[in-house]
Structure formats: structure tokens, C-alpha cells
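Weekly sync notes, structure subgroup
Attendees: PM, AL, DS (notes)

Item 1: joint prediction request from the bench team. They want all two components modeled as one assembly rather than separately. Inputs as received:
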Amino acid sequence: MKLYIRSSACVSPQNTFNHEGFLNDIVEYTGTRLKAIEPDYKQFIDPKQIRRMSHVIKMGVAAAKQCLIDADVDMPGAIITGTALGCIEDTVTFLTRIIEQQEELLPPTAFIQSTHNTVAAQIALMLKCHSYNSTFVHKGISFESALFDAIMMLKEQDAENVLVGGTEEMVDTSFKILTRLGLYKRQPVSNLSLFVPSSKGTIGGEGAVFFLLTSEDSSANLAELTGLKILYKPKSIEESITVFLKSHSLTIDDIDMMITGRNGDIKNDAVYEQLNGSLFKNTSLANYKHLCGEYPVSSSFALWMAANILKSGVVPEIIRERIVGEDTNNGEADNASPKTILIYNHYQNKYHSLMLVSAI
Amino acid sequence: MSSSVYIAGVGAISAIGNNVAEHLASFKNEEAGMGDITLLDTIHRQKLPVAEVKLSNDELVAITGLPKNISRTTLLSMVAANEALTDAAIPDFGSLRTGFVSANSVGGMDKSEDFFIDFLADNNKGKLRNIFDHECGSMTELVADKLGVSDFMTTISTACSSSANAIFYAARLIKNDILDVVIAGGTDALTKFTLNGFNTLMILDKEFCKPFDEHREGLNLGEGAGYVVLVSEKVMQTLAKAPYCKLSGYNNSNDAYHQTASSPDGTGSYLAMQGALKKSGLTPADIDYINLHGTGTPNNDSAEGTAIKRLFDPSYPPMSSTKSYTGHTLGASGGIEAVFSVLAIKHGIIYPNLRFETPMDELPFEPETKYLSGQDIKHVMSNSFGFGGNCTSLIFSRI
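Output from the run, pasted for the record:
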């Protein structure tokens, strides 16, 4: 059974949401934290609710609703989300009040909205969707876990289509703590030169990306989702990638473009550097974390990007690291649109994921 | 896809026992696990009863061999998951495709609370090791590492239905021929965060809870962990002892009514129970026991009861809420109650619903109040419903 991405909507630190063109109006940030550009929520959410909702709920609901509009689907067969930290804004609010008010006279709203499944639940509530509804919360593979479930569900033919997404918000508290844990660079940098000077640390990000996955063949589909593999502490990632490709009757030569999860941190990027010089030596390379920042479900941004490259045939200049054959092709590589893209991301070198996407 | 999924092992820790045998003894003796708060430093001590696991963190560290200073949620998970895997005694475990699917609701919140006290006073203070494992996925990863599972792991968090969904998901991983063996369930330790959260919703009973009683006033929070080991048909044939039962049905439906409250007619609960029956190919009359979600809140028991009435009327199987023993263990409850459901089939027992006195006006049935043994139990339904309208029902069937 073939599975397709019918539509995708992306709230990110770039102009990606309801925007004419594809990564054609790039936003430069200086610092170590990229904040999502807020959509006009009034189009999607009752104004009374907007005030009560945290950032991640609003981003998630807006991306989910836009994704359904783009797919021309009113009621999805399942709603599945992935998030590592969930509704961290409401969690911090409630925790802070417990301590500051010494457990007295606490309002319930922040607690009610703090559960990790709030985004998926709010989408179901707004759509009055009684179907399967789940939320995966496993660190850097939260989105991949949700996607894995969506793929299984379609294969089981328990749903004709599935709304699946990754959502993550960064709040001041999590940014401060993650900075103290050493995740981010010590000095402010331009996100557009993230890969230039190799140093310790990356930049933080956030966003909400949803996809409507379907088993229905249609010219409206953006791309085919050909494969997904999640690996935990693989002995050899190079071998794992080769085995994965082989399971889809492919070799690395069949891959027109690799999108890798480089994030500007020397240690994090070492595995990509190594592969770029070996297995991926003759493959075109693209990056994405300079656009959206590093966050646990950032691979959802990469999948959005891949689907759009395959649909539009355009590889935006801003994401290119290396285009193979550019020099020998009289500079016409711009028109050589990739047909098969492999996304490879890892999270702290423990969790690795491979997503294979093809043109329809 | 048509192959069956078997339950080969069970493990549980809660306020009424540190292992499965202790749970069975507590049920028989009708000993509930609630009492005064002793573990949390909170203003609610002596005011709100909770159901604590009767082991300190130091004792849990000694039992599990896990490092000191990690979340109690992880420690509880390790005890029950290890018991389940040991019980299953799967030959050549290391050569099989194995997975660990665990659930919890607030991750390492017990440690984050300690961190936050210092952090709020000064953002450069607070021991980082107390916040490092805040994420829900950390609990799963630490336990999976210790169990020697690395082919597949993930964490589900759908509030109080979390671990029922973990078991459901695990069964699908086997049916889709992705894994041979999955340890699945959930864990949650008591925290000030959840205690205060439920308190703000005014759904905590100041006395021991009375599920499905007309005069019920709310739930008691509990803590614990519960896991089952699910195996494929092929692995089942290699087992030295017979498996407990099959997981024959499951369904996850959403109430889509309110973020925390259940709809008056229990739409989500009804759809979950109906969907699980359909999946298993059974009718309501085939169900021999329902392990209720039965939190003891006016809203839950009314919605769940109404949904049961819609589906089962006019003949009702015996049913009870074991939360009258364990309290509501949140993200762990679906896992713990799955273990109880499996044991009900294995030992032919129906657990009493403690402290039940007055039938609910709106319902034509009442829960079982006596401990019954020697019962012929073929099919058990286990309900788990949560915030966000997440409703999941599982059905376990004798082989």
C-alpha cells in the first residue's frame, strides 16, 4: 500500500504559514533562540479562546486546521501528535503558582491545559472528531513515533486518512534551563551563518507542523511517504541507512537529495560530516535547522520541506549545502528537481530517524 | 494482521502491593491502600488521603539497582516492568525483536518540583540533575536500557488513558509484524503538581473514594506502575508456561466534548467500549467482568455508567472499580488495571468495589461489592478515560 502526504501546514520561525512561495522570504535572527511567527489565529480559533490558550495550543490548532483546509478534508480518520515537552508554558505557570502561592488559591486553567495531549484534544474538540486520538512524548522521536502510528493505522485500513503533527513551544524557562544544560551557543549568532563557524552548541527553535496522510492516490498529493525508520543507539548508522534503503529496494545512488539535521554544534554534526564524506559523498545535501532552530520535533519541519520540494520541484537556495552535478550541468542544476529525498536526523546521537519521501 | 496477541507476563506496584502476589492478597483481604500523605511536602497533609506505594525512594533504588536521585516515576516503572518480563520468562529474549512502550502523565515532575523551588528564587540555581529527566520519554528510556530493550521504544501521554493506549499500541506493533515481544503499560508517581491540579478542579474526595456510589465525592490520587508482556503467536509457542490470555479487542475514541469533563451521555466511553467489542468480535453479553474506569468523581461515574447502560442494558456483567483499592494512578491506571483484568481471567476472581453503599439514582445496576472467586471468566473489559476526551477500552479473553 502506498501512502501519501496530501497536505502540510507549518508554523515556524520562517514565513511558512499561508505564505505565497516556498522559503522565498527568509527571516534572519541574531541570538540563540528562534521564535515562531504567529499566524492570525482569529481565522482558526474563537477570540475568547485565543486569550486562554497557550502558544503551543494555538500554533498546533492553527496548523492542524490549515492542513485540513488544504487537504479539503473536514473530518480526519485519526488525530496523532508528537511533542517532547508538551504544554510547557502552562506547566511552568502552574508549577510556579504552586510554589509562589504555597499551594493556596490556585486557578485550575493552567493545570487543565498542561497535559501533553491538549493539542490533539483541542483539535478533536473543535472538529467534534470522535476518532482515534493519541499523543507521543518520546524526546527527539516524538514526531516520528506519531508518524509511525499514522502509517500503521493506514496500513491496518482503520482510517482512510490521518492528521499527524509535531508541536513544540519554547518558553523563557525552558530556554534558560536548556541553555544552562549547554545545548545552545554561548554567543549570539546569525541563524543564517549557523554552519559557518564550528563551535559548541546550537540554536533553539519551536513550531507546529501538521500533515494529512492518506492512502488515496490523487494528483493533489504533495508527495509519497515511502518509508520511516527509527533507530536507538545504532551500532553503525552508515550500515543502518544502507539496510533501510535496501529494504525499499534502493541504494544511496537513488537518493537525489539528503536533508540532514545539522544544527551547528560540532559534536552533533560530527556524524553528518563523516557521512557527507563517505556514504553521502555523491549526494546533494540540504540543511534545515538554521531556519527553524533545534527542537525535539524539528524533523516535522524537514518533512514539510521535503514534501514542498517534491511538489514544486524547487530546491530553495537557502537550504542547499551541496548540489551534486552543479558544475558539470552548465549551471542548470536549479532545474534538476529531486524525485527521491531522504531525511536523516538524530537527537543527541541516541535517537536517529530516517524518512524517505518521493515525488508522486 | 489476523494473528493473535498473547499476554505472557504481568507486573504491578501500587499502594496495595509491591508485586502481583501482594495485590492478590490485598484484594482477597479487602485492604485498600489509601492513607495520609507521607511522601510529599504539601499543605494537603492530613487533609487529603492518597494511595502511596509503601516503599521509599531509597528502598526502590535498592530493589531496582537504578541510580539514586532519579524520578520515583522511573523507579516504580522499573519494578513493575521487570516483574512482568521476569514472569514472562521468554526464551531467547535477546534474539527477538523487542520493544518497550510506556506511558506516564507528568514525566520527572517529582524532581522538577525540587528544582523549581531553587530556580524560581534564582534562575541560575537549582540542581540540573533534578531537571535533566523531566521529559516523559526519559522514564521509558532509562527502564528500556535496564531491561535490555533497544529495538523499539516510545512513550504515550494521553492523560489517564495513557497506559491503556500503550498496551493497545504494543498489540498493533506485534500484529503488524514489527516486533515479537513488547512490554507495555505505564507509570506515575504522586507529585505536588498533580495533587494540586486535581485539587483545583475540586474532584478530590477528603474521605476514601466511593466509586459508583450515589454519594461519591471525588477521587483519591494514587501512584504505581503496571505492565503486561505481549507476545506474538510464534513467541507464545516457545513459552514454557501457558500465556494468561489474549488481548482480543481495543479501541480509542474521543469524547470531543470538553477538555476535562465527560459528556453527560458518555459518548467517548460508549464508542470506546463498542469499538473494542467490535474489534474482538464479541457482543456485550460475552463480557464477564468490567474493570471500570470508576474514578469516584460525580462526572466520570455518571458518564461511564450512562455509556454502560446504553451498551449493556438490560443485562449487566459484574463490574467494579479497583480504584477503590489503589486510588487513581493516572498514567499508570490503564496498565495496573490491565494486570488486574488479566489476573481476573487467570484466577477466576472478581474484585469488590469497596465502600459502595447507595446505588446511583440514574443507573439500573450497581457494582459488585464482594470478593468472588471460582468464577468462570472468559472475557474482561477494562476502561480507561482521560482528560482531553481520550477514552480507551481493552478486552482480554481467555484462550
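Discussion: Chain A touches chain B through 60 residues (CB under 8 Å).
Action: AL to compare against the crosslinking data before next sync.
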